[in-house]
Amino acid sequence: MIRRTLYALALLGIVALQLQAKQQPNVLLIVCDDLNDYISEPGAHPQAQTPNVSKFAESAVRFENAYSNNPVCAPSRASFLTGIYPQTSMNLFFGDWSKNPVLKNSKTMMAYFRDNGYHVLGTGKMMHHHVRGEWNEFKNKTDYGPFWFDGKDRVAHPSVPKPYNDIGCIDGSFASLGDVPKGAPKSGWVTGWGPAKLLDFSENNPKRSLTADEKNAKWASDKLKQFDREKSGKPFFLGVGFVRPHTPLHVPQKYFDMFPEDKVQLPILKEGDNEDTYLRKSITAGKGLKYFRLLKESYPNKLQGLKAFTRAYLASVAAVDDCIGQVIKALDSTGLKNNTIVVLTSDHGFNLGEKDFLFKNSLWEESTRVPLVIRAPGISKAGAVAKHPVSLIDIYPTLKDLCGF
């Protein structure tokens, strides 16, 4: 029952492709990180601004109850990109999938398409542990930046108060890229993990540096236009991995301006709401409970802290929506649109203070439910909504069938 609609799409795809004798369809797979399902009801944040994703959903099928098979980056991606459940592989946390006894002897989605004659290329965060050999062509490895650099190290942004700031440069940092406090002579924004090179993200600078997501959106868009010009006849599988809204929540100021902090709406927060659960006894819950506690201790009250963090999260969602829109607009401006299957999703969601929890890696709706939108030209019904449950494990076999393998 879980795969009913996805399999229906797949079976229709086989028939359609056989009858129309079309060229093998291309595949564009867009994967975000920590992105809540803010385009569906129930659960959509009332202030979320995702015009590009929403417009794309109008041309596709939106799955209103799509779920991650493990609400943590590494095992979720290892699972849906191999088609193997985490409980089967026992790759449950941050273990390297390529060293897992089951997964290393299985064929990833990328390798499967490559072995079926596709040009397989990608950029950004696809697998949590990158293996170059899975791809014919790969542009940029995962980059969680921009990071604040204090002249010596990558640290949490100075505007984040302690003790939350002590978490560090990834999970403990959120601020606009326009927030450039005066500090050490060599302090400023940097990206990546190599030698620190200060970058200029000033929005009034027409030649400003691009964030990692912006670089990946541009590269993918350029590739789509190139494929349209060259018309090689060889189908492609293009994976585009966007990091935002994964922490650190650093995006241009214009996105923060969309959400004045005093106007940010929070979910219903009930005192003691997790006391009747086993969460506090779970070995996996440590970060979410700790981060919530530290955020609460860093501000005059927990509501103020949650508003500051939620504002940065909403800004990051708006920023990645623009990146998604850039790629889909590039595709739709070419002749590739009518023969390219597009899948848009996220590896899992994120709890923003519900049940005193600030992180992923919970089995609650916020961490487990993800956006999932699929457009299969000539097959999917524009604007359709599937309400029954599906999961990310269904993507691999669905694409396999849609492409007639």
Report on the structure:
By secondary structure, the protein is an alpha/beta fold. It is 30% helix and 14% strand. The longest helix has 31 residues, at 302-332.
Overall SS class: alpha/beta
Oligomer: single chain
Strand order of the largest sheet: 5-4-9-1-10-14-2-15
- The rough form would be described as globular
Please tally the β strands and state the result: 16
Question: Residue ranges: pLDDT <50 for 5 or more in a row?
Answer: 11-21
Distance between the termini: 23 Å
What's the quick description here?
The chain is of the alpha/beta class.
Topology:
Layout: H1 4-20, E1 26-32, H2 51-57, E2 61-63, E3 66-67, H3 73-80, H4 86-89, H5 109-115, E4 119-124, E5 137-138, E6 147-149, E7 154-155, E8 188-190, H6 212-230, E9 236-241, H7 253-256, H8 286-298, H9 302-332, E10 340-346, E11 351-352, E12 358-359, H10 365-368, E13 369-370, E14 372-375, E15 384-386, E16 390-391, H11 395-402
Parallel strand pairs: 1-9, 1-10, 2-15, 3-16, 4-5, 4-9
Antiparallel strand pairs: 2-14, 3-13, 6-7, 6-8, 10-14, 11-12
Helix pairs in contact: 1-11, 2-9, 6-9, 8-9
